[in-house]
Design goal:
2 copies of one chain form a homodimer. Chain A has 238 residues and is an alpha+beta fold. Chain A folds into 2 domains: 2-161, Nucleoside Triphosphate Pyrophosphohydrolase, CATH 3.90.79; 172-237, Winged helix-like DNA-binding domain superfamily/Winged helix DNA-binding domain (Arc Repressor Mutant, subunit A), CATH 1.10.10.10. In chain A, 34% of the residues lie in helices and 29% in strands. The first copy, chain A, contains 7 helices and 10 strands. The mean pLDDT of chain A is 91. Chain A binds chain B through residues 1-2, 4-10, 47-55, 75, 77-78, 80-82, 98-100, 104, 106, 108, 157, 161, and chain B through 1-2, 4-10, 47-55, 75, 77-78, 80-82, 98-100, 104, 106, 108, 157, 161. Strand 1 (7-20) of chain A pairs antiparallel with strand 1 of chain B, so a sheet runs across the interface. The structure holds a DNA duplex (30 and 30 nucleotides).
Chain lengths: 238, 238
DNA sequence: GTTAATAGTGTACTTATAACAATAAGGAAA
DNA sequence: TTTCCTTATTGTTATAAGTACACTATTAAC
């Protein structure tokens, strides 16, 4: 009986979203594939350490990756199928990377948001880190494609409950149409421009600035910024 | 380096909700406490087995507990703090129960819903299983009190996205005021009777029956039932 | 037939959503 | 400087959902 209980390894995987022009992107890292000469993209992640909880582990992974110390982070689901490391490549890669035979590995998946233009301190331990548009994701190891798929569903329902994540993905100053394109990318549908303006006019935590775009070859758009104080006031009243 | 990675045990814990009169209840089991002569209530749970994923494990736990084979089940969060088994009682209980030294244990928490009047096949391996109103929860081991707290928040947001769970908690036939009291219990606030009637009139998957209450010493209330076919049609159109 | 208890119902106001098209501003090209 | 291209900005009407609010109906018990 005792031996039928599972002692296993637990990892963290992070789906880090960034927004650029009209597209959501995800931060991927490259790993060497043990059996071929090539490389392969995967989600950034790590086994969890003895003395940290999953949140701390996720922060550590992202800090190692980007140098960013604090970020919005949300645990969204654990992936536990015994078959998730059935691929031989993945088994070998785990052994090569962690110098341990790992027969069962569950992962706790996190969502995170970063302004895509933010410069990373290149402290990364990975050879290559890059943004990948969600429409062009490669085949990834383990169940990472499935994890991303569920992360997308999760971010949609999250933004409804807590629109603050929109502003984590935009630069400090942004135009109404950038905000709209982000909203559209997240919900994967188009929104009427006039109705969208009405909607954001109702957000009293969205401050219109005097400043406008410069050197654009069309009518310059007004900039807005997010007012965290107003936002918090409003949230409490809900 | 290798040894700082965590090999650990993974468990499932289930927060099973039932609804009775005006209150949400949770299914608790009793465990012997190793150091005292008493017993203690806790959430039903189990270590995960080698060949099952977390969902299967949660189904197994509830099946062992109630005899019920299929039920609505939702993974909602993993609890991973290294401190969650810092209590000596809990450490000893784990060792006594699983005959293994368990230094680190994370748990994947599930939400589930059962009609409270459903008769259980008493196949339970526990000495005592009982419903406990959420307003009267005892102090529980590990972080089970915290898990229940977060389960309550989760069920609130779940019911918004998928009102079907209301009907998992009610008998097949129910009155409008039972539905309203359930809604109130979940949201922990009161709703105006007239407005609530208007709301449920808009649910085209809620069928009013001809049948009414009998032998009640006040005006008899009409029964309603839930129409799953209409509900699914409607969900697709969303 | 009076009482106690719960069921059932309508109106007015506010707020969010949705459909829909013309004008304004800035730079580039002619 | 005029024209053109591109994107920004703005209002009305209709529909749906949410909120506040109070009286009548029905049943069994006494």
């Amino acid at each position: 009986m005792e031996n039928s209980f599972l002692q296993t390894y637990v990892s963290i995987d992070c789906v880090v979203f960034g927004f650029d022009k009209s597209q959501l992107n995800i931060l991927l890292v490259q790993r060497d594939t043990p059996h071929s000469t090539g490389t392969e993209w995967k989600l950034p992640g790590s086994l969890i350490y003895q003395q940290e909880d999953a949140n701390e582990g996720a922060h550590r992974v992202l800090n190692e990756l980007t140098g960013v110390k604090t970020m919005t982070l949300r645990q969204f689901k654990s992936f536990t199928s015994p078959q998730r490391i059935s691929n031989l490549c993945d088994v070998d890669w785990l052994e090569a990377t962690y110098h341990n035979k790992i027969e069962r590995l569950i992962t706790i998946a996190y969502l995170s948001l970063i302004k895509i233009n933010r410069k990373f301190n290149s402290v990364s331990k990975y050879k290559t880190v890059d943004w990948c548009p969600i429409s062009e994701l490669p085949q990834m190891p383990f169940d990472h494609n499935q994890i991303v798929k569920e992360a997308l569903e999760e971010i949609r329902s999250w933004v409804e409950r807590d629109p603050i994540i929109l502003f984590e993905l935009l630069p400090t100053k942004f135009t109404a149409s950038e905000l709209r394109r982000l909203y559209q990318a997240i919900h994967h549908r188009e929104y009427d421009v006039r109705n969208f303006h009405k909607k954001i006019t109702r957000m009293e935590y969205l401050l219109p600035l005097e400043e406008k775009q410069e050197k654009v070859s069309h009518r310059a758009a007004r900039y807005y910024k997010f007012d965290r104080v107003m936002y918090n006031k409003r949230k409490i009243s809900l």
